[in-house]
Amino acid sequence: MTVEKLKEAVRKILPEVDVVIGYRQGFDPLHATPFFMTKPEQVDQLIWNPLCVQNLCSYLPFLKGKVGVIVKGCDSRAIVQYMQEKLIARENVKVIGVPCLRVISVKKVMAAINQQSVQEVTFEGENILVKTPEGQKTIPLADVAPRKCATCQLATPLQYDLLAGDAIQSNRPQDTFEETKEFEKLPLKERRAYWEKEFDRCIRCYACRNVCPMCICQDKCIAESRDPHWTSQRANVTEKSMFHMIHGLHLAGRCISCEECERVCPMDIPVAKIKKKISMDLKELFNYEAGMNPDDTPPLYTFKIEEATIKEHEL
Amino acid sequence: MSYVAGKELRIVGFLCNWCSYGGADTAGVGRFKQPTDLRIIRVPCSGRVNPLFVVKALLNGADGVLVSGCHPRDCHYSDGNFYARRRLEMLKRLLPFLGIDERRFHYTWVSASEGARWKNVVTDFTKAIHELGPFHQKEEKTE
């Protein structure tokens, strides 16, 4: 069992570090929540299952001292990106890697069980069994997995000091940005109307920013600053769009496509779509993917004197 | 003089202090006839232009945005425009995704001696924006 191996790994690392971040059960059986372990007796509460969706690396730039953290393949890109940007000292972080092939989207499960309250959740092979007052429902994991899992390339983390389990390979197809390309085929007017409709729902709760592993200046975010005054408190679509553009453009070349922003959005705004588009362009222009190699430089932090891929625009 | 008499549009131009602003000055000194829709904002370098400046201008009432700097290799700060080129190219590709016509944003390089070229850039860009028409409808500007 992976969870036993994880507990063993955490117990092994705990004396060397101040805290180990993992998961435990949240307010109901369908929710996992981040768990900060400082004492060995806490380790028994640790859980590991496809409900452990959060990217725990997001805490790292804000924590002092030595920290242990449980990391999935997709989360490990955050560690690599932090190393590139020198936001963490790798020697102060003990990474417990855990092989993972699929997590689940709680929103999709809730939709499948008609938003009933959850009494019990069990996992059997490739299925999730959810018990509600209406009875038990069996749902295949693949049907309720978030979008990112369909194109997962990192079943085993890129960076780890200890691996709980055996290294595995994912056999999923690579992301070809089909959805983004499909959207670009829509007429210009429809695209503008689409974003106006989507952004108009935004309540500016900033959950997408707060959860973002790469939003490291969120304590002095320009979206909330009065000087400079980038956005005002007006509740119109212009200000809302502006906030999403700030988030999107500050992540250009840094977004690790964890899609946490979309997961936490209470209004179901497809905020990751913009970031995906930028990632696609930067891959085309500079053949770069964020969070893959600690020795890379983000493409917008560097330049070439002759840019083979950028042509001058004529009027 | 507006490009179309009585129907001036709002075009914002971010010009680098060392080349393009000088180029615009040269065009003025040379008494070239230019449309007046462009409102110039002088910046130290095209590398100072945050892509968010362009987005903010477009979202808040501009009909077009022009960014102009020194020719690549000619930057006063030696590499500012190289960074600008990457950022602005990314932005140019992003705008149509959001439903903003990419022709509303243009970036180019004009040196201080190129008064005639500056005149052409302004005239052609203003013409292109007038062909596209106003970006914002009157009622959209209010809350």
Characterization of the model:
The complex is a heterodimer of chains A (315) and B (143). By secondary structure, chain A is an alpha/beta fold. Chain A contains 10 helices and 8 strands. The radius of gyration of chain A is 21 Å and the shape is globular. The termini of chain A are far apart. Chain B has 143 residues and is an alpha/beta fold. Chain B has one domain (11-141): Rossmann fold (3-Layer(aba) Sandwich). A 4-stranded parallel β-sheet of chain B has the order 2-1-3-4, with helices on both faces. In chain B, helix 1 links the parallel strand 1 (11-16) and strand 2 (38-43). In chain B, helix 1 packs across helix 4. The N and C termini of chain B lie far apart (32 Å). The interface between A and B is large, with 42 and 35 residues.
Put the structure in a nutshell.
The complex is a heterodimer of chains A (315) and B (143). With 315 residues, chain A is of the alpha/beta class. Chain A has helices at residues 2-13, 73-84, 106-112, 147-150, 178-184, 188-200, 207-211, 237-250, 260-264, 272-286, and strands at residues 19-25, 32-37, 67-71, 93-97, 120-124, 127-132, 135-140, 162-163.
Shape of chain A: globular
Q: Which ranges of chain A are low-confidence, i.e. pLDDT below 50, for 5 or more consecutive residues?
A: none
DSSP, total strands of chain A: 8
CATH topology of chain B: Rossmann fold
Beta-strand level of the residues of chain B, as a percent range? 15-25%
SS summary, helix count of chain A:
10
Rounded to an integer in angstroms, the radius of gyration calculated over CA atoms of chain A is 21 Å
Order of helices and strands of chain A: HEEEHEHEEEHEHHHHHH
Secondary-structure blueprint:
The complex is a heterodimer of chains A (315) and B (143).
Chain A (H helix, E strand, L loop, with lengths): L1 H12 L5 E7 L6 E6 L29 E5 L1 H12 L8 E5 L8 H7 L7 E5 L2 E6 L2 E6 L6 H4 L11 E2 L14 H7 L3 H13 L6 H5 L25 H14 L9 H5 L7 H15 L29
Parallel strand pairs in A: 1-3, 3-4, 4-8
Antiparallel strand pairs in A: 1-2, 5-6, 6-7
Helix pairs in contact in A: 6-8
Chain B lengths: L10 E6 L3 H10 L8 E6 L7 H9 L4 E6 L10 H15 L10 E5 L5 H18 L5 H4 L2
Parallel strand pairs in B: 1-2, 1-3, 3-4
Helix pairs in contact in B: 1-4
